[in-house]
Amino acid sequence: MKTGRVGRFTLSLALVAAGLLFIQTQQGSREGAELNLPLKKNPPVSHAPNFASITDVTDKKVAFFDYLRPMIEEENQRILLQRSLVEVLYERLQQGQSLDETELSLLGKLAQEYRLELRAVTEQSLVDLLERIDAIPAEMVLVQAANESGWGTSRFALEGNNYFGQWCFTRGCGLVPNSRSSGLNHEVARFDSAQASVASYLRNLNTNAAYKELRTLRRWYREANQPVTAEVLIPTLVRYSERKEEYVAELLQMLENNKAYL
Fold first, then answer.
1. Do 88 and 103 fall within a single domain?
2. What residues does the Mannosyl-glycoprotein endo-beta-N-acetylglucosamidase-like domain cover (predicted)?
3. Which of 106, 121, 122, 228 has the fewest Cβ atoms within 10 Å of its own Cβ atom?
4. Distance between CA atoms of residues 184 and 176, nearest Å
5. What does the alpha-carbon distance between residue 235 and residue 109 come to, in Å, rounded to a whole number?
6. Of 106, 132, 158, which one is at a domain's C-terminal end?
7. Global model pTM greater than 0.85
């Protein structure tokens, strides 16, 4: 049965209201994903398997991917819900409808979360916001986590739930690298949970200027109705590591070598 204009309008309002409530209730749980917060009094709690004790390579890979995959899927679903809400409001603007205060508030919160200056709500500004609010292929996230954390055995994964080597720049916000060069002040961020690390990593790719190419390429593939895959996006991570092209090549090789487990 077709949905009339009134029905679609009511549905869009319900989605917006639900989305605003969801975002408001999630704000507290996302604090651990911010990279400039001071170190909390209580150390992070990790419920990860003891990956170092798993001697069989296949078992270790399966355990590692099985541990992180549900977190990645949950965070990606959260992002896609946000995206669907913005799409509803974008469609309404295209139809010449005005947005109410609740809807504008929702867009303001999302723009703040995705670090986009929203001077005015226009079709173009929502296109810019949609370029940032989008999922990252789980296979890419898993491979990069394996690379950065040594399959969950690194000091930063064990002591800080940091599976992606993310830095922070407030004293006490994380763990001081043993190999940090003189004159540098960065630390490796500490998270309350592995899921907070995943959420922060996704936000980093979706907001940091260093990954503008990733977001643009992802949008192009979306507009062309082509699948956005790990193979497509990994080459845009050239600025993620000082090793640049060598780092990208290593990730692509890991992706190829671990397809049976992804």
1. yes
2. 134-259
3. 122
4. 10
5. 31
6. 132
7. no
